[in-house]
Design goal:
Number of domains: 1
Radius of gyration: 17 Å
Shape: globular
Order of helices and strands: HHHHHH
Helix content: over 70%
Oligomer: single chain
């Protein structure tokens, strides 16, 4: 048994959240791309899309979610760190702030999300990450 074995259940909980958040982010990105293409015409491939995501204000609203996902990846990649329920609580709190109407820092994200939440794929992938996160807290 390795030294990190005691945190294996927590690591598994957080690891299960990663693909669910990625699918949600992908659905939001596809929605944002559709909005952009409606206004500006087709995006000329994956490299052009990457450049837009990194540099164009039309995609900036996605950055807070991207940041949470990057932080979660860093936490999971830190093999020398023992994870605890506190890590799960922190992720839940960060995602909660992202969607909290009272937190003005993420108003731009919430505006983009409000436009996107009518999309079936966005709704489906959001339901999935929320289910995974809720299961993480109950397990």
């Amino acid at each position: 048994m390795t030294a990190s074995a005691p945190d294996a259940p927590i690591r598994a909980k957080l690891s299960a959240l990663v693909p669910a958040l990625r699918h949600f982010h992908s659905a939001l990105l596809d929605f944002a791309k559709g909005e952009y293409e409606f206004l500006h015409g087709p995006v000329a491939g994956p490299f052009a899309l990457y450049s837009l995501v990194m540099n164009d204000p039309a995609f900036q609203w996605l950055r807070p979610l991207s940041g949470i996902m990057a932080t979660l990846d860093e936490v999971l990649d830190a093999k020398d760190t023992t994870l605890s329920e506190r890590n799960v609580t922190d992720v839940r709190g960060a995602l909660g702030l992202l969607f909290a109407e009272t937190d003005t820092r993420f108003a731009e994200f919430r505006a983009g999300y409000a436009r996107a939440k009518g999309d079936p794929r966005v709704r489906e992938t959001e339901a999935r990450w929320r289910e995974v996160l809720q299961g993480s807290l109950e397990a």
